[in-house]
Design brief:
Structural class: alpha/beta
Shape: globular
CATH superfamily of the largest domain: NAD(P)-binding Rossmann-like Domain
CATH topology of the largest domain: Rossmann fold
Order of helices and strands: EHEHEHEHHHEHEHEEEEHEH
CATH class of the largest domain: Alpha Beta
Strand content: 15-25%
Radius of gyration: 19 Å
Helix content: 40-55%
Number of strands: 11
Largest sheet: 6 strands, parallel
Length: 285
């Protein structure tokens, strides 16, 4: 019988640990970890994500501030705000909620963040550190997936790992984390030929393409671990990139949507906020 990977339960354990560590750090350093989120425009999904982050921070004893800008915000305005936050010693973590308005260069904006305040792990410095095998701050969703694999004692070393999707947010950092853990890693994307032949070799298949129900049982090796990063609303129902009902019988482990990877992303954001706090205090938890 396949095991359903419970991200909700593990995220609660992490959040409890973060709250405990936060209290200890405040007692040691006498200031409160502070995360600032920059939110531009009125994208409903972004608004929802930010509300979730605010609630999680409050429950963990972390101060959070949301700086809201209209969709007409300019590149210079956002970059100036980041410079101000970089120089503010009371701010320990900076998060730019993506996507930004189309008129703003996301890569350029992210590059302006102090790498030690980069809770998303998106700055060139942190991307380079991950690529070199010595990560400091890692993107939250891939980090959450690694926590899940560890919690369920799913072996990575020597495993054939396939990552479907090559985004800077999930696909590429995920591949690097699996590679750093001694997995044998292949990245697939929209130009990959004979996709099913590749994915059906995977002991661990991570799917992050943003196409609802794209992956059914024909893409999956018998006994594989399937990690579904996708989240979409179809006919008022939340679904992932994997056709869960068809995939389930072939898996040894599988994440549900919702309740799999999603809750882990915010839990790891809290972890990263504490890492930034410790880095800025000259320590590393």
């Amino acid at each position: 019988m396949p095991v359903i990977i419970d991200g909700t339960a593990l995220s609660k354990k992490i959040k409890t640990a973060v709250a405990s560590t936060t209290a200890q750090l405040i007692e040691t350093y006498h200031d409160i970890p502070h995360l600032v989120v920059i939110l531009a425009g009125d994208d409903p999904a972004s608004q929802s994500y930010v509300r979730g982050k605010e609630k999680a921070c409050a429950n963990a004893g972390i101060k959070s501030t949301v700086l809201r800008f209209p969709a007409s915000v300019t590149q210079r305005e956002i970059e100036n705000e980041i410079t101000r936050l970089n120089n503010d010693s009371s701010v320990h973590g900076i998060l730019v909620q993506l996507p930004l308005p189309k008129s703003v260069d996301e890569v350029q904006v992210l590059s302006k963040i102090n790498p030690n305040k980069d809770v998303d792990g998106f700055t060139p410095t942190n991307v380079s550190a991950l690529f070199s095998g010595k990560p400091k701050l890692v993107p939250c969703t891939p980090q959450g997936i690694m926590h899940l694999l560890k919690e369920y004692e799913i072996p990575i070393e020597g495993a054939t790992c396939v990552v479907l999707g090559r985004s800077q947010i999930v696909g590429k950092p995920m591949a690097n984390l699996l590679l750093n853990a001694n997995g044998t890693v292949t990245i697939c994307h929209s130009r990959t030929k004979n996709l099913k032949n590749v994915t059906s070799q995977a002991d661990i298949l991570v799917v992050a393409v943003g196409k609802p129900m794209m992956i059914d049982d024909s893409y999956i090796k018998q006994g594989a671990t399937v990690i579904d990063v996708g989240i979409s609303r179809v006919n008022d129902k939340i679904t992932g990139d994997v056709d869960y009902e068809k995939a389930f019988p072939k898996c040894t482990f599988i994440t549900p949507v919702p309740g799999g990877v999603g809750p882990m992303t915010i839990a790891c954001l809290l972890e990263n906020t504490l890492k930034c706090y410790s880095l800025l205090h000259g320590d590393m938890i």
